[in-house]
User: Fold these one by one.
Assistant:
Number 1:
Amino acid sequence: MRLKQRLQMTNVASLRKVKNILISYFVLLITCLSVTATNAQDKQQLSGNIAQEKKRVKPPVGAEPDDFVIPKLHTISLINGLKVTFIPFGELPKTTIRLVSNTGTIDEGKTPWLAQLSIDALKQQIHLSGLASGQPLTSVEDDVKSYVGTDNSWLEVDVLEEYSAQAISLLASAVIKPQLLASEFTLIKEARQRQVALIENNLWYVAKQALLSELFPHHPYGNLNLNSELIKRVSLADFVEFVSADIVPGQSHLYIAGAFDQAKLSEVIHQAFSGWKLHQKPIREKLAINYQPRIHFITPESVQLNGEVQTHLLLAKPLVAANNDNYIPLLVVNQLIASRIKLIVEQQPYSARVENTIINNRAISIWQQKIDVGKAHTGKLAELVFNQLEALKTQLITTSELNEIKDYLAGRFILSNASRTGTINQLSFLVQHDLEHQFLEQYVDRIYRVSVNDIQLLVNQYFDTNQMVVVVVGDRAIVEPQLKQIKALKMAW
Amino acid sequence: MVLSWLSQAWRKILFIIFVCGLVALTGCEQAERAEKSKPEVITPNSPVTAEVSAQTFQLPIESYQLDNGLTVILSTDHSAPVVSVGVFYQNGYRTEAKNRTGYSHLLEHLMFQGTSNLAAGEYQTLIRQTGGFAYGETQLDNSQFVQSVPAHSLETVLWAEADRMQGLSFDAQSLEKQKAVIKAEVNHRLNQSNYGGFPWLTMPQLAFDNWHNNHDFYGDLRDIETATVEHVSAFYQRHYQPQNAILVIVGDFNLLAAKAMIKQHFSQIFSNIDEQMLAQNEKRIADISEPKQLTEKLATHYALLAPNPALALAYQMPARGTVGFYSMLVIDQLLLQGHDSQLYQALTTQHNYKGQLTGGVNFLLGNSFSNNNPMLWTISLTYPASLTAEDVRQIIEQKIAQLRNNMISKQQLKQAINKVKAQLFDLLDYEYGIGRASLLASLEMFDGGAAELNKIEGYLGQLTPELIKQTAEQYLTINNRSTIILTPGDAPKAETAND
């Protein structure tokens, strides 16, 4: 018992010893650790802000976006049919004035370049009138901006608020009474000729022309008229006639965005545009989409001469008009395809450039995919692109991938409305495509309503690879055998 | 009696002396007061003062500093649900040390190559997914990282900017990759473009004497080639710190909420600068002061790819914050900007000119406000072979001489000021709020405060035709001019040998 007791006591003593040793050890360990930690901290300070290895922190997702609200607009109509929309925007005393007309290359008839040269000439007329008045409108060299499209065209000035009335009067005078010295008109034609001469042999433009000819045979949408010689044929009288017949109040919309005195400008607008006579414009025939899916090869001389190594590929497929219910969901599909193809390209050992677009003509929007790749890799990359489209028909994408696409599109929409010109762009898009304001108000909501099943249905409905037009600009002898290997393209040969 | 008479007489004399003294004293005081109230003579070198009545807008601007030294500038604009965020680090091309040239540019690239939380390229993806965009830009005196995003993504951006202010994560491999990217960029911009670095890179090299101002801003590529992870880390450690940075937010945000987010994400970043090391090595702020130019400078350059001959003239600018600086903005508009400018009109109407006439303050090196002193005002143009450089220089000099010798009309002054204002508003509008953020940061860095923005119109209102003439007389002189004549083709062999 004693022994046992002694043993027990010894054990207790030993245990105490062990305990003390352990305590000492832990104290030492903690001390060491704290010293090490202090050293580590010092080291971190010495080594600067270079991040230490640690668990990755995820970025905060941000707040919920607010509902999109169109700025408080005020629209008036003049007796001659001109519509005017006032858009209060921003805090600076600056005003953007844009006159949009429902005309463009579609109304050129047998005189290619007439729309472009007419807008160029009006632009110059406004610029010269501003100079002659002794009060040029703005500081920028190109003080009048312009655009000419297939279905609509515009002239725009961006001025200090105090010059807004003057700018409106100059715009009105030009469209009501188009006039320019013959010598000035010649200078305008020469300038445009120089610009066209620079691009008429550009292979991307050559490809684009081939694509449009395939999609819209015998229609103005189908012709880029990339021939600088055609410009010479347009006369000063043609310009005056085009402006009088096609830039008319009933087909035009004036936008005033920024800072302005609405009452004062309304009066100025009524006075300035009252002389613009009502002119009935013939109603255009509805465009019938009638194209043959096929592969169009172009082997430019440059390839034959100096062995051009790149291939330019254009894939295209008509979708729907912008006022179709599927238009916004198709924008989601387009973005998804763009993101998938970009990823494919990044994974390849060779370099390639890709870009996809939705071209919005009034009658129809077109999906277009551009691929720029070396001739040795053309077939492989095209096959990966077509396979991707096929995969989207059968495999559902993940919700998280879809949500990223939606967030991107919703965010981009917010930015595209966040400037004077951005707001005008959006509102004139509505007019061009017979859409109501609801289109903009519901845009974000409709983006977010697209489901993974919708994506699959839409890809099946609109992205039939056998219904595409494919334009290949490059070395046919090398590229054609490669493309013939692609199963998805067999129908098109 | 006699005594009392004397004392009476003395009393009168003393009284008269006292009154005279008083009158004299009052007269002196009045003269002194009159002297003081005489209007101070304003010259181009006087500090500018604001004419309040000329101000047509007041933008909300609030600035403060965190304990760690980070300067914060907030400017709300509720026009659209968008915010722009910029972080401006006060180091750029010309504040680098001699053996560290090109490092700011290198860091501009590395800031997108990852942190401990975001892998290489993820910063861009993060911003892009919001629907917004982001980019970095190295300037002469600062490196800026800017983005515009939908307003609801503000916190995501603040987190990401704080994350890369906290630390970067790059290794030798990613460093080498970015070196190659920079080399390709420099090669493309300098060797594959028609006019190379003319005149934006070449003119400061001719016009300035201080090495900081006149070295090749792209840097000595050998400095980049020999850069190690340690070198670049030390550079980052020294310059990419909260006390060397300005955070600007512009757009649609709630002030209180934004301040809370800033506190949450930035206040825990502590400076890791080793002050002792700094003191031993080099001064934190480079001395970029420039001696006054006393004689004209002239150089002839050659460019293999240039389709036409070209000429650039540059004048050293009056200092920021002076009457002369704002006068030069007006002169820039009068002489150079737009088709109504005197030089464009002279060249086109009298000489059937069809070349490209450009230039401005800090030409191709930011906007008129984005750099510290010293600055240049540059005229740059291409011209047809039918003219000589001397012909063109004469035409320009004639117009400038007119400005030195004659007073412009009040109407001309008003028109030019309107053009300056239009340009200022365009800058404020640039890329949603990025232009405004950049301008606020510049004013904070170089003019003593972001709130100066609300006085710029007032400063322009102080200008008179006399001051414009005086500025031209003082600064647009032959002795303050540097000229580069650019000739297409290869340099003649003899000159190549001399080089």
Note: The longest strand of chain A covers residues 365-374.
Number 2:
Amino acid sequence: MIVSSIIALLESKTAITDLVANRIYANRIPQAMSTYPCILIRTVSVVPNPTFDGASRHDYEFIDIHVKARALSECDAIAKIIRTQIEDTVGTYDGVDIVGISFQQSGADDYNDTLELKERQIEFKIHYKR
Amino acid sequence: MAVQKSNYAKFKYSTNVVGSITSLTFAIDGNVIETNSFDTASITTAILGRRTVTASIQGLLDNSDDTGQVLLLTDFLNASNSLPSDFEAWSIAPPTPTTGDVVLTGACIVTNYTEDRGDDGDGLSTYSVDIRITSITRSVTA
């Protein structure tokens, strides 16, 4: 699982941290949080590429990035910047050798009435060396 | 029942094991020659004629592999490989054959080579090689 690597990648982009500061979380956002927008990252699935030589040396990991904000337009603007900043990235982040990142799809927008938050979900395929 | 895993067979070309294989297919196609005519019998009789033996190998493209995968490409491009004496040895066998394992060996020539860089631009590049087998020996490891 490489969510920590994606967090490191997002935190390395000032265009993103200018908007969400360090509010980039894995799996869940902290309780009693009151400052938004924020970004939440979740693993959807990991697909291996095994060969006759042995176990997979290159995996594909599909991740969902959830952008949460008070306004849907703000969610969409941040989602757009995230895609621009990370798509086709190559490099090592948090020790993970990323070979490529491609945008897959944007999911339906959502509204959390308890937190009064709008949300935009975008999915990426991360290609990395194990 | 000696069922084997699908990745149990290694393909060796010349003296090198070809790595990163994801699929290996070995095929023998026999031609039959009919030996009777319409008016001699209601059932067509035949004898087995020549057999065409081929193998197809697919795998992940490894540009750093200059002894296994890339040798298949360079031999395919080598115009001097036109005589039977130029054909390379091949074998299909388990990684370390033990008693009772079947080993196939022979000579071959590369007849097709393709590289697929993918249709979505974000996947792994793959290669595919077809070989025409000109001799084959089946042996069982003692």
Note: Chain A has three helices and seven strands.
